[in-house]
Description:
By secondary structure, the chain is mainly β. Helices cover 10% and strands 48% of the residues.
Amino acid sequence: MIDAQTKEPLPFANIWVSDYQLxxxxxxxxxxxxxxxxxxxxxxxxxxGYETLTDTLPLRxxxxxxxPTSYAIGEVVVAAAEDPAVGVMRExxxxxxxxxxxxxxxxxxxxxxxxxxxxxxxxxxxxxSLLDTVTRELIEFLDKRYFFFAENISVSEYKRPGYVHTExxxxxxxxxxxxxxxxxxxxxxxxxxxxxxxKILGRTYVNPVSPxxxxxxxFVLKDTLAGINDTILVVAFEPWExxxxxxxxxxxxxxxxxxxxxxxxxxxxxxxxxxxxxxxHQLYEKVEGYWFPRQLSVDYVFNEIRLSTQxxxxxxxxxxLRFVNRTRIEQVALGVQLKKKAAxxxxxxxxxxxxxxxxxVRPDSLSEKAMATYAWGDSVSKATGFEKRINNLLSTAWxxxxxxxxxxxxxxxxxxxxxxxxxxxxxxxxYTGHRLWAPLxxxxxxxxxFRDAAWKYGADGSLLLWKDINLSVWxxxxxxxxxxGQLHFEHDLHAGAMAGGWRAFYAERMSVVDSWRAGIAxxxxxxxxxxxxxxxxRYRPQFDYAFMQEPxxxxxxxxxxxxxxxxxxxxxxxxxxxxxxxxAAAYPQLLLAYxxxxxxxxxxxxxxxxxxxGRWNLPLLRLGELRLRTEGARVWGEVPALKxxxxxxxxxxxxxxxxxxxxxxxxxxxxxxxxYIMGAVELWxxxxxxxxxxxxxxxxxxxxxxxxxxxxxxxxxxxxxMEKGYWESGCVLDGLYSMGSFFSKLRIGxxxxxxxxxxHLPAASDNWVFKVSFRTxx
Length: 778
């Protein structure tokens, strides 16, 4: 079935065979088939927003074209009474857990995935004789080939509450003899519309199948298709008020009765002016008494990535890039016994590229255009070394390092650094890459700080022993500098995204550290990490400090046995080229670290230290996002201030940029505590459309409390304690200016922060701080 005017397919359109009381549905490409046993009677073809067409069996036409009606999908009609669709949706939402695959005990399925990228050019463009030579050649290329084409077959497993494992068993991609990556439908769009909230290309959308959604969406019953044993209700929806274009949806839901389960879904952006427009289709079928997705498809139109054409007169047009994924799911098995691989969520079978029986597994034969794309890609790759270059580029992006001499890599984070103590720090690190021997990673680094005029260096390594639980041993040494009084955690997956690394610029008080450490790490359960180790180091403060139990001492030996447990909801890893690569991490997050200090000979200190941090980001329908964070520490025993807490402070009169997740008004080393706790609440609005800018507004509230048992032990440094509680409020206008693409943007904004409570400063103006904010993300 197609649109009679545009010739575009009509996915999930309805076919009602009245004499047999049977209802059929087209697939995501508009195709349908009727059983040979249906030999006579009336057939009704319908689709929301199109005129109904009636025909009789046997059908004499292979293509059914429907004409659009005069009204658009989802037009809001204000009525005094509640539309019947609202009652239907209340029941669908009430039963959503019953039909949500995420609440099934376990399942396994096989899927066929196909992706392509192209630019859709208007038909009349091919007929223009004035086009310049380059444009004409490009148009001829797109008429015969896609920019990109790939397909793969995967086997996916799921066990509640969150174990996921997918293995690609067949992989084919234009230009690659041995692809090192693959795309799956469930990776680039929601696996089912029961997920709430919906995450699409990293952005959060309000799900129409979520509690209270009728307050946000206008649901309208468009059609009823009655069969012998069941009925399909066609429900259109769109938001009552479109005020944040990129976080709102509209579309059509096909609801099955009497189960009140989704039979089909079509969703897209609520407004046309977005950076990435999308249209998602899903088709569900009943398997072993449970509803399960069987067809998934998505079309993404990247309006910021455009192909420009020009004729000899200088006029032309620009046409966006379109990316398409089609997924077919089969061999669904529910309630299966699974062997968990806690650390492996996605992997490609080593022989996946050798699969050669594609004709037997493809739902349909490849088009001539797809076959021409494969042939063109392979010829270009052989002539230019395209595959090697792309694999190096992907390796650079995945592992955040520069490949060197094929077997080594230089991590990005080793090249450049700045803080107020070292000034500009230039350096480099060299580590073994996955091509040498993937389980082993060893290397070292050297760096020079131009303000402190000192070299730093170190070496470390790790050896993977058991892939399924990511069991590894690690060790290393360093001669470097370290800021005192700060929380330190391994495996903080959200540190970069939430804090942005800006706090490091503020550090001005350092100790020179010569230390070594060793230990083991493993992932006993999905999303859980355990680390056990030993660290011993000599610390020499580069500032005036005296520990009054040892007057005159200017270096301190710390020997610690360590235990850290971390949990990050939704944490998943892809194993590519023999090493894990993080592909997903959500909230909540919990980090818990315990250290026991020991005496070594006549040196060292007997103490215990407990540190924790928690983050939780909660989408709030139309309100935006609520971010919660807490951190704290408790130290038992008499120990130098280097192992105590200064708090999350980020105020320096010489620096004017915000350091997220810190107090913007608290002096860097203003407080000292052996017991410390901080809490923060941030409420962020959705992206707002305000003329030419699209900012977000954040309202921030932070509070902290701390105590210090023996202040007299710490001399030559000025500090105060925090028993009365520290309070700070702020407001940030984020995104006054943005640069970058849809996938990654630097957003520049401004914030104002106010310090109040027991520790407010005498001069009222000194309690106000204005800062520029820099944030990255979608």
